[in-house]
Amino acid sequence: GALIASGGHDGAVRVWDVQMGRMVQALHGHTRRISTVRFTPDGALIVSGSYDETIRLWDARSGQLRHLLHKHSQAVRALAVSRDGQTLISGSYDQTIRIWHLPSGQVLNTLHGYTQEVRTVAVSPDGSRLASGGADHTVRIWDAASGQLRHTGRGHRRWVQALAFSPNGDFLA
């Protein structure tokens, strides 16, 4: 059946069966609160980010831990997964964005430029661009392959908390 994953202040990821309306498992491993949770597009993995500076990849059905990713030096605040399920993007209070090869758990690139925490990330539908928003009030667009910063948008008066590409990738909200 259809699943929902939720992350709690207690550091657990809970998996819920939508049809039955009940929790089917609790995934323990994070030592601090969960800040973000995502499914891979195929629904096979749950990806969780935490204030414990780690990202954990869990098998959505069995609950088994598949990968523990620990390259950020502060809380992981934001996650996005590419449509093909091959790339994971993470944003952190350590002012970096990391691009990961999801199947292997290896870091492909680390993007710098923020002077405050990265609060949200998104990947374009075709996977060619990344977007990020931060506590410095900016929205940034990056080339996913090279990691080059393409545009910096200013206009928010406070932190940028959320952003999303349109389905065709032409717009960013």
- The Rg value, from CA coordinates, equals 16 Å
Average predicted local confidence, pLDDT: 95
Class by alpha and beta content: mainly beta
As a percent range, the share of strand residues is over 45%
**Main beta sheet:** 4 strands, antiparallel
Second CATH tier, the architecture of one domain: 7 Propeller
Main CATH class of one domain: Mainly Beta
Oligomerization status of the protein chains: single chain
Strand order of the largest sheet: 4-5-6-7
Number-wise, the strands total 15
The percentage helix is under 10%
The sequence of SSEs as H and E is EEEEEEEEEEEEEEE
The CATH homologous superfamily of one domain is termed YVTN repeat-like/Quinoprotein amine dehydrogenase
The rounded distance between the terminal residues' Cα atoms is 31 Å
CATH structural fold name of one domain = Methylamine Dehydrogenase, Chain H
